Amino acid sequence: MAFSHSQLQNPSSSRKRSPRKIVPQFVNYRSPSGSSQTEASRAPKTLYHFFTKQAAKAEATKVLQVNGNTAKQALVIDDSDDDEEDKSGRHLTRKLFSPSPTEKSGAEYKGYSNVGQMTNLSMLRDDPTQKLVPISSLNEFESGPSIQSSTRDGIKFPIGIRSSLRDPHVELINNTNELMDCIPEPQPSLPKCTSQNYEAQTFLFAYESSVKKGLFSQTDNRLLVKFFSLNESAQKLWLRLYQRKHVWILKSRISYELDNIDSLFKELVDAGFLYDKTHLKDMKILLQLLPQKSAIVLGRQFCDPKKCTTKAAAIEELTAHARRKDALFGAERIRHRIIKSGQKLVEQCYFVESSLAAAVTRVLTLISLGSHFDAFTSAADKNDHGVCNLFTINQFVRGKFAFPEYTVVDVLPILFGSPEDFGLYCDARRHVFRLRKLMETHNWDTAVSSFEEAYKWFMNSYTKEKFAKDASLPSFLHRFSYSHCLIRCLVAGAEIFERHKRYQDAVDLYYTVLSQTAFQQNQRGMYWNRLLLDTDTHLKLPRNSICFAMLGLEDCIAPQHKFDVYTRAKRLSERFRIALTQLEEFTPPNDAPIEIIDGQLAKRNIIGRRNVFATVDGTGERVVGPERVAVEYYLHNGYTNGVHGETRSIHMLFAVLCWDVLFSEPSESEPGVSTPTGRALTLETESQAIDRLFNRPEIVDISDEDEQVDETILSTRKRRRRRVLNKTLKKKKKVTTIEMEQIPHGNYFCSHIFSEEKTPTLKDLKLQKAAYINEFQSCPLDLGYPEFYLNRKRAIEEHLATLNSMSSEEIVATAKANYNLYSGRLNPLFDWELLNADEVSSLLACIPVPILVAIFRQLLIDFRFYRSGFPDLIMWNERTRSWKVVEVKGPGDILSTKQRYWMHFLLSLGVDCATCRVVATRSRKIRVQNNNGDGS
Asked: Given this model, what pLDDT does residue 341 score?
């Protein structure tokens, strides 16, 4: 949100917005009877009113011609003028397409008999030569003898007609064709997809779009064809149940506006797509579905009635009773009898059949690959099958969002190869999704059992050939492979084990992930940091941790992750007095200047928020964050505008000036190939690191324990001599040679499963250019990967050279044109509401062109690293053409690694940037600030 100095001086005035942001408000009108009515309650605007007015105009002119008046065209008026005469001489002018007034009674119309002919008459009182003579209607004039008229200078005037006697001629102008040409033609649109049938239509569209790719098995195709043969209402009912939790659902909790819903349930059950209560064989679930009275009745039927007083007690007794063994048939007979009796008591319930649910999931997965609604939707917003809801997909299918223009490359058949490979990927994706959803909802207990189940499935289905095939894909297509899902599952399991303080298992999983370098290359630094933390802090193995730190500094990881590894390695090296050559080769980022300002604390703390400040202006007290405090400070100290957008601000400038390159397709004839250059963590590399650091004779362990002193010797000496001896003995230390061993491993250590990695060779160059594989993408798939720059290197360099040759005025004109052209297009970088076109233009006018080009070059080359971490505020002054970037920190906040690197980069370009620390004053009394910024 952008701020200006004028807003601080007049807080009650709203910020000037562009016309597209203005929200129309309802205006209250006053009816003739005095009651208020809104515009919505008035008659609609239609062409009927226009043609009615034209006809009335022609008839009135004809009346004047018959009476011998050769003046102007007739001006037809409405009786609503009579109500406006008393309001200080003001009147309302009815425009061409203005809504007609509501129907009135005969008494209110003062003698008008045909209201429909008089509702759209225009008013004009500006010409003083025109006079008003009321009549009953125009039809009465044509009727003959009953016409009411008045005579003036020998000319008859029909009542209600206003005319001038100065012009000798009357012209009839037919401008209907001209007005009709101004009316826009109706645009073609998709057939309406109402809330009654959008599920079935959207799924049918998804199936017809996906079945052509040949990635569904024959079993899936037979199931789906049988499903589409059902009644459309039955399809709709099943799809709605599919989108709910995959559990048994009571019929009373299924309330949809469908006709004959019982027959629809029967049709689905007969087709085998739904299970009813007769298929419910799980006694635990059955007892939970029973209402309290039925559970107590069932418990008293099989157990002691005195103990079955509540539902929980009845379930406990029935569960214990089911574990007992029958003398002849064992425990299963007792369980079977309880289930049979429970099925009679429980309400009808339904469960979605799993094979059809898996087929539908594969259809929706295939249409969602690479799409905006799949990539930028959290796990909590998806259904239990890992795909977006049909309503979300329907909004994209119906064109509710505008996307950048591109050409879709159909590589999915090449990417997966066979229906079996695609089915394996869908199953792996579903396992990962379940883990992520449990982690997002902080259900850590269930996540452990879910990970163990997923881990067993991956270990049973994994093959080295499959891993090698997936590793040969371009890095930006790894996300659509089975092996990528395996790595994500291991990382999720490590985080789950850390939550349960099972650090040994977490270390084994991180070790396994770091033993390969093909997948998750941009996240390897984060895994190194977690491994160092667990081994040093939790497992109390600092010497093994420093060995891992040395290997992490030698690995090819992101700068912000390498800085974190460097910080921990430096602390460990000082602790053990070991000189690491890798520390000398690394250059940490420079820090920006620090500016300190004061901020008044709010009167009360707000739960869930920290660093809450408050300001007082003409509208009263406002609770704000430290960023708003800093904005107000800089607006009173040399700057006229400011925006708190963080990285979105620079991304918006980046997009409006580099849109054509940013959303372009790969253009190089020979696409570049990025090969993994990291160093894998194996048992061999760990052993070599230990030998290099510790297993050398000059490395010693300095213990803190003192040598034992014979108390009998000390007792025979003098007191002074004993104090001197004690002082001397305390300086002695025990010196021993270190014998280091490798870190111990547990059951989840499986680094040997990955094959030896080689440079990937692409058999099909079409995959390397597959940046767009879905018609609902908001950005290319390779954005954030090395392939993005390699595949567009020539076009990027030419575009940056063109920008560098432009003047500041040309940059502003280009940005404004692109803003108006692409405004509203969906993109993952920023929101169009952040800055309007005028604010973008004024900001770009203050930034030197070489600095803009340098920032854009970094974003185009390494977008993944620079996609976040930009300072919070951008302040600029339109008059002095100066700008400043500010990172705001409240009490107790520190700079993140990415923020430090952004500051380091901006300082190297000569940008005025600073770290603003807002210090909370001790007094919670808020001082009112005047327009000059002084406290009063």
From this structure: 93
Name 611's Cβ contacts closer than 8 Å, sequence gap at least 6: 625, 626, 890, 891, 892, 893, 918, 920
Q: Which pLDDT band holds residue 393 (cuts at 50, 70, 90)?
A: confident
Q: How far apart are CA 267 and CA 264, in angstroms?
A: 5
- Taking phi over 0 as left and psi of -120 to 50 as alpha, with beta for the rest, 544 belongs to alpha
| Residues 639 and 876 sit within 8 Å (Cβ to Cβ) | yes
Specify the pTM: 0.73
Residue 147 vs residues 137, 150, 154: alpha-carbon distances, Å = 9, 10, 16
Sign for the CA dihedral angle at 831, 832, 834, 840 comes to positive
Alpha-carbon distance 366 to 774, whole Å? Answer: 10
CA geometry: angle 286, 287, 289, nearest 5 deg: 65
Which range among 137-151, 740-754, 795-809 has the greatest average pLDDT? 795-809
- Mean pLDDT, residues 845-872 taken together: 92
Structure tokens at 562: 């390498």
Closest CA to 645 of 816, 783, 829, 913: 829
Q: Give the pLDDT confidence score for residue 190 in this predicted structure.
A: 41
The backbone torsions φ and ψ at residue 269, rounded to the nearest 5 degrees and listed phi first, read -70, -40
Q: What is the token pair recorded at 216?
A: 């569904």
Average confidence score pLDDT of the chain: 76
User: What is the separation of C-alpha 199 from the centre of its chain, rounded to a whole number of angstroms?
Assistant: 23
Give 132's pLDDT tier (boundaries 50, 70, 90): very low
Per-residue pLDDT tens over the stretch 398-448: 878 888 888 888 899 899 989 999 999 999 999 999 999 999 889 999 999
Residue (of 763, 754, 789) closest to 674 by Cα position: 789
pLDDT at 429 (0 to 100)? 93
Q: If you average pLDDT over residues 508-521, what whole number do you get?
A: 92
CB atoms within 10 A of CB 496: 24
Provide, for the chain, the percentages of residues in helix, strand and coil under a 3-state DSSP scheme, each rounded to the nearest 5: 50, 10, 45
Taking CA atoms, 413 is separated from 121, 224, 254, 420, 463, in Å, by 67, 20, 39, 12, 21
Q: Write out the H or E segment, with its range, that includes residue 843.
A: helix 837-844
Length of the chain: 936
Give residue-wise pLDDT tens across range 182-224. 555 544 344 444 445 788 888 999 899 889 888 999 999 999 9
Nearest to 349 by CA among 244, 246, 278, 258: 278
The answer to whether 519 and 487 are in contact (CB under 8 A) is yes
- List CB contacts of 369: < 8 A, sequence separation 6 or more: 412, 480, 773, 774
Q: Report the amino acid identity of residue 13.
A: S
E strand or H helix at 414 = helix 412-416
Q: Strands 613-617, 620-624: parallel, antiparallel or unpaired by DSSP?
A: antiparallel
Residue 8: per-residue pLDDT: 58
Phi, psi of 194 (to 5 degrees): -75, 170
Compute the distance between CA of residue 355 and CA of residue 221 in angstroms, rounded to an integer.
12
Given a contact cutoff of 8 angstroms between Cβ atoms, the answer to whether 150 and 156 are in contact is yes
Structure tokens at 484: 């990528």
For 886, the 3-state DSSP assignment is strand
End-to-end Cα spacing for the chain: 28
Count Cβ atoms within 10 A of the Cβ of residue 561 and give its class: 0-12 exposed, 13-18 middle, 19 or more buried. buried
**Of residues 915 and 21, more confidently modeled:** 915
CB–CB of 508/745 below 8 Å? yes
